[in-house]
Amino acid sequence: MYLWRCLIFKVSNCSTPDDLADLKSHLGDWIAGCGIPDIYTATLLDVKRIRGEIVSHFAFHRVASMIQQFVAGMDSCGRFWQMVKRCWKQFLPVFTNAGNKLIRNSFQDLFTIGWSNRREEEEATIFQWEWWLMAIQEREVDHTFEELLVFITGADLLPPLGFPQSCNIDFYDQESGMRRIPYTSTCSLSLYLPRGVADEDQFKDLMNDALKGSLGFGKV
Q1: How far apart are CA 156 and CA 174, in angstroms?
Q2: Residue 107 in contact with residue 133, Cβ under 8 Å?
Q3: Separation CA 60–CA 42 (nearest Å)
């Protein structure tokens, strides 16, 4: 998107015969590909029209066939798209990003905890986990709930219909002489935390290394 906005800006700034000649030489094929083949015979009086047609191409014509195919597919299921049009307010959260920011309570409610028979150690870790979530809410640490959601699930916002299952918190043991940072499985929506972490600074450092040290979902 950024590239074609820059190209449109260059068309808008075409104001002299030399600018127009340069435009035809360097961007003529691109403009023609936008459905404006008369760019090669255009004059300065045509520049405003050409710019408008390029914008129309990217805003409408380029995606019109895909939108029509989507609507036809929806209507093939009992004319479902017509229902969406009639009840658009109810379907708005499904088809658009409502942009609601995550907060501590809603984020915490996503998880179930896989307690074991070593619950006392695990409760110490969960106490630090809840403290850390509060620190995010109060902006006392350099992380966001969206960043944490990506780390655990691969998604940067909650799906409109929710995840197919609850997220899990499971535990592991730190091996003697080793420092193993928290890790996740985005396939199973699981976060793995070390048992028996009772120190705030230690937990903060572990989570910071886990989030800042990861490459990011889908990156190698």
Answers
A1: 29
A2: yes
A3: 23
